[in-house]
Automatic annotation (TrEMBL):
Protein name, entry field: Conserved uncharacterized protein
Assigned keywords, A-Z: Signal
Pfam families in the record: DUF1684
Organism of provenance: Stigmatella aurantiaca (strain DW4/3-1)
Residues annotated as signal peptide: 1-20
UniProt xrefs under InterPro entries: DUF1684 (IPR012467)
Domain of life according to the entry: Bacteria
Length: 309
């Protein structure tokens, strides 16, 4: 499926095909709301405040204004419409030329354009991508841009601290903290290296390492989710969908992090389920829930749908 078509479906909040047919009533029941203990409500509110602060930071996801995939050869960038990569109007008409040669990208600045990298004047040269950690970030006024790698693709991601999406942000609606959605699951580790196929909004599928499966119960019904292991992380990362994606939460699913298992148990606090970056910008490259992580239950906890997405 073309990327623009897939994004259109996601931003309209349309459900994944696997959720199209309603399951049996016993499997669609939501967790009965339970009063949130004072500590759970306080912890949830504090966590969400930190989440909003990161999202709305000068270099947070709300500042993302462009994503351009690089072809072999030269790509001109600047605010003039004639550029292959058109930057916001605050940038000079011509900023420079990016040159891709295989897996490497270099930047030749336009004379007189005051670019910096890590706070130091940048006169040109190769740019480190995010493939092996933090990329080289080129700064120009309120703009920041850097090179990302996604599979065989190399792209330029542009952020602007003055972006309308950031300046006009007024928060994300959430469900009230609910003790019924802080559940303890049983972890079943994989006996051999396990990989699951995780699709993304680019129409690609990536095989990601999964340490096992977490089984948990809601309303007397058992469910299971497979986390993925991120390099260097001391947490489990869950990419999941549920029946609220149809009407109240982001149509392409949500994310959840948990602590690693302790004594074979994992605490799944769905009050901390949150929207992926694609809920806020079409320039993100989000993973989507794999088929086994599409829950046939309404997870009425965590973040709700943002704006018109």
């Amino acid at each position: 499926m073309r990327r623009d078509s897939l994004l259109a479906l996601l931003l309209l909040g349309l459900p994944a095909p696997a959720l199209a047919a309603p399951p049996a009533p016993a499997k669609t029941m939501s967790a009965k709301p339970l009063p949130a203990p004072a500590d759970l409500e306080t912890e949830t509110r504090a966590w969400h405040a930190e989440r909003i602060a990161r999202l709305s930071a000068e270099d947070g996801w709300l500042s993302l204004v462009a994503l351009h995939w690089l072809e072999e050869g030269e790509t001109r960038l600047g605010s003039a419409p004639s550029n292959a990569l058109v930057l916001p109007a605050t940038a000079p008409a011509q900023v420079g030329v990016l040159t891709r040669k295989g897996d490497t990208v270099s930047l030749t600045p336009q004379p007189g354009v005051p670019l910096t990298v890590e706070g130091k004047p940048f006169k040109g040269g190769a740019l480190r991508t995010d493939a092996s950690g933090s990329p080289d970030t080129v700064a120009l006024g309120s703009l920041r841009f850097f090179i990302i790698r996604r599979g065989d693709r190399l792209g330029v991601r542009v952020k602007d601290s003055e972006a309308p999406t950031r300046k006009g942000f007024h928060g994300i609606p959430t469900y009230a903290p609910n003790a019924a959605w802080r559940v303890e699951g049983r972890f079943e580790p994989a006996t051999t290296e396990k990989k699951i196929a995780v699709p993304n909004v680019l129409g690609e599928v990536e095989d990601m390492v999964s340490p096992g499966t977490v089984l948990f119960s809601v309303g007397g019904q058992e469910y299971r989710l497979s986390p993925v292991a991120e390099p260097g992380s001391n947490q489990f990362f869950f990419i999941f969908g549920d029946l609220t994606n149809r009407d109240e939460t982001y149509g392409a699913g949500r994310f959840l992090y948990t602590d690693l298992p302790k004594d074979g148990k994992v605490v799944m606090d769905f009050n901390r389920a949150y929207n992926p970056p694609c809920a806020f910008t079409p320039f993100a490259t989000c993973p989507l829930p794999p088929p086994q992580n599409k829950l046939k239950v309404r997870v009425e906890a965590g973040e709700k749908r943002f704006g018109d997405h």
